[in-house]
Amino acid sequence: MSTIDSLTGPAASVFWPTVLAAVAVALPTSALSVVVVPKRLAFLGQGITHAAFGGVGIAAVLGLSPAPGFAVVAAFCLLAALAIGAATRRGGLDADTAIAVVLVASMALGAILVHLRLTLAGPAPMAGGWESLLFGSIVAVSPADARLAWAVAGVVLAALAIWRRPILFWACDEQAAESFGAAAGAARMGFLALCALAIVTAM
Fold first, then answer.
1. DSSP assignment string, 7-48
2. CB 75, CB 55: distance < 8 Å
3. What total number of domains does the chain contain?
4. Burial, 163: exposed, middle or buried (Cβ in 10 Å; 0-12, 13-18, 19+)?
């Protein structure tokens, strides 16, 4: 069966949310990549997705169901991105090292908390959903998921358009940006937060 047949045939309603979600993820990530590559943040995607396991552990300990559990995971990923930014700015670490430290610490935290949950209270309400959250399939995207992906894409692209000057100044010459008072630190943190939003949406 060809792609056109899939999108126009009887099962079109199954495939269109997948296509729309894929485009919604591709647009902001492609725009962010313009800065990700020169700033050597290519490891960020893997770092944030693996750091999500720390959020999984917190949600498991709290006994949260899927919807609030995902909110906790998203918030944890955002905090992980900000921690990476703080480590590179104040800790003097290069980006890859900071990402690796946050990744390992988050996964260790998640493993400990999930083990505590299983030991003390049994499986969490989302026990069947953690795997789909961390290792999901885009084919399983629902229309609501596609709409959410487009909403996040709109927020990320709008923020990039509004803050493009300080972000590009920071990306091209961080020292010069700081010398000219262009709020390089805020640009770094804001950009990493936008990356985290895009990555969580892709998950």
1. HHSTTHHHHHHHHHHHHHHHHHHHHHHHHHTTTT-TTHHHHH
2. yes
3. 1
4. middle
Q: pLDDT tens across 153-188, in order?
A: 999 999 999 988 888 888 887 777 677 766 777 888
Please tell me the pTM assigned to this model.
0.81
Euclidean distance between CA atoms 118 and 100, whole angstroms: 27
Domain of residue 142 covers 13-202
**What six digits make up the tokens of 146?**
């596609």
Query: For position 36, which CATH number holds?
Result: 1.10.3470.10
Tokens 């953690």, residue located: 130
Report if residue 189 sits inside a domain: yes
Nearest to 201 by CA among 114, 39, 73, 95: 73
